[in-house]
Write a structure and sequence with these properties.
single chain, disordered C terminus
Length: about 400
């Protein structure tokens, strides 16, 4: 651990110096950070040589996801979203459950050693998407707005949806393996969800009330207005965990509460700048650590079955459910293929992997499960990173030639 922080700081400084040149190219930030982690990790130079179960790694990943969940949820404006709700609703309401079902079925066939709860757990771990891995897809202005917003909303909300599913399935897997009793599993899940929701509601409401009141009375400095959402995310998380609740559910619910109250008070100012910047910084460090601590060792256990599942997870398991969710919308094939392909796996899956590693009750085939998840993330970082900019430009050109076709992409 002696040289880990200097190594990470050096990577951040080097990337900062070239970030403007990298933006918009097939070389994405997560690719660079993951590759740097592989180079600096214990299986290479050994400068970042810490255990995946180390408390500092767990804390880093959890804080990062909590900030991202709060930020994404705080921006969900149901009133504005109503006009563009069809695509994300189909992706979340139809595509997400079908993706989990497909991931489970493929895991049972391809990874036959996994018990059925472990196969289902793997499917849930790999269900949430991470728009940051294909940033051009959700930021390129020439892309159809509905497609950009649909993928962005899907990425922002499916993390929060998958957290309680992950907790439930993990408890089932532990109960099936005999690590904990079924009654204890049910109680654990109810506490995680219940206390998480409660802590999130309280933290979000308190933070929004403080911010709105202080701004009306002109008693808050603009800098400290930026700090309020960060403090709210941390408050929800740190209150939920000691109570036995899920800090991630608290962060997501807190963000929804905070954003809803702020908008209803006619306060249109965006105070999430510091929250977003902090999230980006922690996200970068997380991918460096992912490459060094998780991906490097996982590649040493790579098998054809693991690689096969990773490829299927990023293609068939994602793209077929997306296509099925579009039935009845008159959506053209290029749009279905584009939306289906861009379902990268990233931060949420990394955090789920670390949480399983932190559990004291080991699953019977935990190594196979986690290796598959980590390899899938690594493949996604590479494949979605390389394809994001060129495919986004190509699809934008097609949509520009067929504007009427795109108009039907989200109509039920």
């Amino acid at each position: 651990m002696t040289w880990a922080l200097p190594a990470i700081a050096t990577v951040l400084l080097i990337f900062a110096s070239i970030s403007g040149r990298v933006s918009g190219t097939p070389i994405t930030a997560p690719m660079i950070f993951t590759a740097a982690g592989l180079l600096l990790g214990g299986v290479s130079l050994g400068l970042i040589d810490v255990e995946a179960t180390a408390e500092i790694i767990k804390l880093l990943a959890e804080v990062t996801l909590a900030m991202v969940l709060f930020s994404d949820a705080s921006r969900v404006d149901l009133a504005e979203l109503r006009a563009e709700i069809s695509l994300p609703m189909r992706l979340l309401g139809i595509g997400l459950p079908l993706t989990i079902a497909a991931g489970f079925a493929v895991a049972v066939v391809v990874l036959g050693d996994l018990a059925w709860p472990e196969a289902l757990l793997l499917a849930v771990i790999l269900a949430p998407t991470d728009a940051a891995l294909g940033q051009a897809v959700v930021t390129l202005p020439v892309l159809p707005a509905r497609v950009r917003q649909g993928l962005n909303v899907e990425s922002g909300l499916n993390d929060g949806i998958c957290v309680p599913l992950f907790l439930i399935v993990l408890a089932i897997a532990h109960a099936e393996s005999g690590a904990i009793g079924e009654g204890a599993a049910a109680r654990l899940v109810s506490e995680q969800i219940g206390y998480g929701v409660l802590a999130g509601l309280v933290a979000g409401a308190i933070a929004a009330a403080i911010l709105v009141t202080a701004q009306r009375r002109h008693t808050i400095d603009p800098l400290w207005a930026q700090i309020v959402p960060v403090a709210a995310a941390l408050l929800g998380y740190t209150v939920a965990v000691p109570l036995g609740g899920s800090g991630f559910i608290a962060a997501f619910v807190g963000g929804l509460t905070f954003g809803t109250i702020r908008r209803r008070t006619a306060n249109d100012s965006d105070n999430a700048g510091l929250l977003d910047e902090s999230g980006d910084l922690f996200n970068a460090v997380t991918f460096i650590v992912f490459g060094a601590v998780l991906l490097g060792p996982a590649l040493g256990h790579l098998s054809w079955a693991v690689l096969g599942y990773a490829v299927l997870s990023l293609t068939v398991v994602r793209m077929v459910p997306v296509a099925l969710s579009m039935i009845g919308t008159h959506t053209r094939a290029p749009t279905i293929a584009f939306v289906g392909w861009f379902g990268p796996r990233g931060l949420a899956t990394i955090v789920f992997v670390i949480l399983i590693l932190e559990e004291h009750q080991e699953l019977p085939h935990e190594d196979l499960l986690l290796t598959t998840a980590v390899v899938t993330i690594g493949l996604s970082v590479l494949a979605h990173g390389l394809s994001a900019a060129p495919l986004a430009q190509r699809y934008a050109a097609w949509a520009g030639r067929h504007p009427r076709a795109e108009q039907h992409t989200t109509r039920p």
